[in-house]
Amino acid sequence: MANPPTGRHRRPGVSINRDTLARTASAALSGLLSGYAALAVAELVSAAVRPEAGPVTAVGGAAIDRTPAAVKDWAIRQFGTADKLVLQLGILATLGLLALGLGLLALRHRRTGAAGVLLFGLVGGAAALNRPDSVGPSDALPSVVGALVGAGLLYFLVGRLIAVREESAGADGWSRRGFLVAAGAAALASTAAGALGRQLNSSRGRGAEASRAAVRLPAPASPATPLPRAVSLRVPGITPFTTPNADFYRVDTALVVPKVDADTWRLRVHGRGVTRPRTYTYADLLARDLIERDITLTCVSNEVGGPYAGSARWLGVPLGELLRECGVRPPSGKGPADQLVARSVDGMTLGSPVEDVMDGRDAMLAVGMNGEPLPFTHGFPVRMLVPGLYGYVSACKWITDLELTTFDAYDPYWVKRKWARKAPIKTQTRIDTPKPFARPAPGTVTIAGVAWAQHRGIRHVEVRIDDGPWQYADLAAEAGTDTWRQWSHPWRATPGGHTVTVRATDGTGAVQTEERARTIPDGASGWHSVVVSVA
Fold first, then answer.
1. Each residue's pLDDT tens digit, 361-384
2. H-state helical runs in 109-217
3. Are 424 and 508 in contact, with CB atoms under 8 Å apart?
4. If we measure between CA atoms, which residue out of 306, 294, 412, 403 comes closest to residue 351?
5. Using an 8 Å Cβ cutoff, are 114 and 74 in contact?
6. CA–CA separation, 137 vs 150, rounded Å?
7. CA 12 – CA 29 distance, rounded (Å)
8. Alpha-carbon gap, residue 61 to 87, rounded angstroms
């Protein structure tokens, strides 16, 4: 009778299963390492080309360009200004899963797995070449070179796994320890390459940072009117009248914030009806008579009650005056162009009505924001502003080109994605305090917030509790028709659940519409309300 197996004896089936699991896990690890190496090397190569040519940035930009407007709008609502970080993490997670799969495929079909890595490199290279800001074939290099290294590494590591398997069957080959040493060396080398690439990419922007640090903004020829003392209400929780630069909303498509050297920056003005085309330097603009104005900006992606509005004191060159200097006439003056297309260094295009830009409002090429040069995230060295228009048709950051054309002849970036060609800002008001689902105590509760209708101003704000009558709110002093206006209303709150609703009347006497509309195609509308429980 055979002796039963002891702990010193291994069952063949268990050994085979363990070996299979170990090889499978090692293949998956090989795939991850190859993907990691590809991205790290691409980061290093992008330092020699330009940071925007990196595969994650290029693929992310392509994804943004091809994402339906409704999905983009949803992403902004859900993730706010972190939407780009979420996209990049999503791309990395997807690439990680694909790398795992290619590693497993390579264990059975070594060349096919490596070819898969090369294929994704070609996709990244194609995405980089098709970006609006592509500078030529060199933009494909980071993705392609990274993929070549990743494919070679996968082929090599899987080869070592095959050697391990042959060794376990009695053939010569590397040991498992040899595979782990090779994998560890690859991980360390990739980490070093990626860190060096990030360091070099960071250093590329130092010239731009130095140029911004050297800027000394001149005093405006036309300073802003001093703000009335009563422009700000002393109500806890209300939005400040002036938004600090660090808190100002940012909504754009740039995965890498452009860092433009002010010393090499140029602005070209050309197109239909431009009888005197010009190219301006940053120094040219600073030498002109500048205006300083308090202006509230609003993003078209701002939902009713949303956060994407902010007010700042801007310093810049009057845009209408500069266009006239170039011989431009508005349509009302029989000019042939009705659209001004602004282009950014990253390829973004925005289209503004020429008539609005030249009708006497304080449209400007801004160089300063709240007393300092524009932050990089808000368009340094120069951005465009047109009071009364949503940002997607007026507020081009990192601007480098102004072309006079017609709406019939050219559709800018957002219009191609089904947003409206013309988009004046709609009247809106927002309740800042109390917050939704707040639980204030019975008694006097101050309801407060901000209202805006740029270029028309705010005449009234009214508050309604539940289905009661509308009551006028107290308005802070008005700084100008191009800024928002704070308001407050004392409410004698009684116990129970209540709905607080607010609406505004603009300077023309038009009452904010109750009709709810989403942000697409020309901005949200409707009354803002919050539900509170008084207890």
1. 999 999 999 999 999 999 999 999
2. 110-129, 141-168, 176-204, 206-213
3. no
4. 412
5. no
6. 21
7. 26
8. 10
